[in-house]
Design brief:
By secondary structure, this protein is an alpha/beta fold. Strands 1, 2, 3, 4, 5, 6, 7, 8 and 9 form a nine-stranded mixed sheet that branches. It is 40% helix and 21% strand. The chain is built from eleven helices and nine strands.
């Protein structure tokens, strides 16, 4: 069966939300239920969502207060509205950001990959982000499905225990899934347009520091993060991308930042990263 529930957190997304709504309404395989959480928006996001929900009963909107305390990231509110008694009714769980768009065969293509590979636990598209007047493909390891759009099998979602909150959640889920013998893949032939480039909301420099913090919280090997920092030094902002990445990692360790990965996941992640560095077969590709 291909019953799926979709869920999206949205905060002040009046610019891009209509594109996501159009994309979902045009899907050849519609969700049984789409939970959209208005996370305290102060623009016209609530009105856009309410209008869509009034026309389509499978769109379920929840409005949260603007002045309530907010945890870092959107996964905490996602899991509030996606308890076990909800997601276990469906074969698949689709998590979407509010600033993406895609073609009408998007979901159908993801479902086809699950049908093709019984061990596939997490599937995602290849993201394209705007660069001037063009769309640039965002290159990632084959296993890495970016947080903007991820589909999980029910078996996988149960195995990983839902989604973690905070920086690095979209690596923790796939690392845990792989540790349990499931696969995570982003597929080049399935595309999605990410209209707000990664890090745009907080600035590129801040984004690089946050990536280092996330790497520490996940449990990245120091040797691996050093190799990545050297590579990132060749990317914008030159040559500070790598320095900022490493600084974020070191600062997190210096401050005693708590890891969000279990010791078992940290051990698995580091084993795979070291295997990759020395040229051995690894799932961390």
């Amino acid at each position: 069966m291909n019953k799926y529930v979709a869920i999206t957190p949205a905060r002040d997304e009046e610019k891009f939300l209509p594109g996501l709504l159009d994309s979902m309404l045009q899907q050849s395989v519609l969700p049984e239920r789409w939970i959209v959480i208005d996370d305290g928006s102060t623009d016209s996001t609530p009105q856009i969502l309410d209008k869509a929900a009034s026309a389509h009963p499978w769109i379920e909107v929840h409005h949260l207060s603007h002045d309530r305390p907010r945890a870092e990231g959107g996964e905490s509110i996602i899991m509030q509205f996606l308890p076990r008694e909800v997601w276990e009714r469906y074969d698949y769980i689709l998590r979407l950001d509010a600033d993406i768009s895609f073609r009408s065969e998007f979901v159908k293509s993801l479902l086809a990959e699950f049908a093709r590979d019984p061990k596939l636990g997490i599937a995602g598209p290849t993201l394209y982000e705007p660069q001037g007047a063009e769309w640039k493909r965002i290159h990632s390891p084959a296993f890495h499905t970016r947080g903007a759009a991820k589909m999980y099998s029910r078996i996988c979602f149960a195995s990983i225990g839902g989604l973690e909150n905070g920086l690095g959640w979209d690596t923790i889920d796939e690392a845990t899934a792989m540790m349990m013998g499931l696969r995570s893949r982003a597929f080049p032939h399935i595309r999605a347009h990410h209209h707000r480039p990664q890090g745009a909301a907080g600035g590129l420099w801040k984004s690089r520091m946050a990536a280092g913090l996330a790497a520490y919280k996940i449990g990245y090997s120091p040797l691996f993060i050093l190799a990545r920092a050297i590579r990132r030094s060749l990317e914008p902002p030159f040559p500070f991308g790598g320095i900022l990445l490493l600084a974020g990692y070191v600062q997190a360790g210096w401050q005693g930042t708590q890891r969000i990965s279990s010791p078992e996941v940290v051990k698995f992640v580091r084993q795979q990263q070291v295997r990759r560095l020395i040229g051995m077969d690894s799932s961390w590709r």
